Amino acid sequence: MCSRYEIDASPRDLAQRFALDDPPPVPPAPELRPTDRALVIAGARRAHLLVWGLPAPWNGKPLINARAETLARKKTFRPLLGNRCLVPATAYFEWRSEGRHKLKMRIAPADGGLMAFAGLTDGDHFTIITCAPAPAIAHIHNRMPVILDAGAEEPWLDLGLPFTAVGGLLVPYAGGRLAADEEPLPRREPDLFGPGA
Question: Annotated active-site positions, please?
């Protein structure tokens, strides 16, 4: 997954979609980048604005992604397996190479609407879990965020369930068709955090 995603929805729509008691706080801009504060839903359906990217003092760059396949083996993520969260989104962005040019692609469920990425949080920061891509977008990038099916969101948030019971939910998106549309790029858009994990 690349280091950009979008949440373009009203607090009312977010509250309705994610069964929140109150309209949640929303980021000031729809397109989010690493270190931005973004909406996260943790256990008991509590909504928070947390910083995107777990601190990584040995690297100097925040850990914005975590690979589903190695979560349980990495000492950085193992302590957070009981701190699971949802990351609401309407789309994410990836860069596709075409010759010497890079094209910014907006990827979202073809039927529109809100989706939830699987995430982990330390209480102040969060990271988005990635997996192999769905076949429809494999030509764009070799990773994608884990988009949870609606029926998988509740067990993922249920911290009474061990990770071994929910790790199987971290699979490529199968809830419908993904649409990838080319976005116009500004003259220069530096990607300070590289191509993503």
Answer: 2, 94
Each residue of 11-28: pLDDT tens digit?
A: 999 999 999 999 999 988
Q: Are 29 and 127 in contact (CB under 8 A)?
A: no
Q: How far apart are CA 170 and CA 126, in angstroms?
A: 16
Q: Strands, DSSP E only, in the chain?
A: 5-6, 31-32, 37-42, 46-52, 65-67, 84-89, 91-98, 101-109, 115-121, 125-131, 144-145, 178-183
Amino acid occupying residue 80: L
pTM for the whole thing?
0.90
Other CB atoms within 10 A of residue 36 CB: 17
Domains located in the chain, CATH noted:
5-183 (3.90.1680.10)
pLDDT given at position 97 = 75
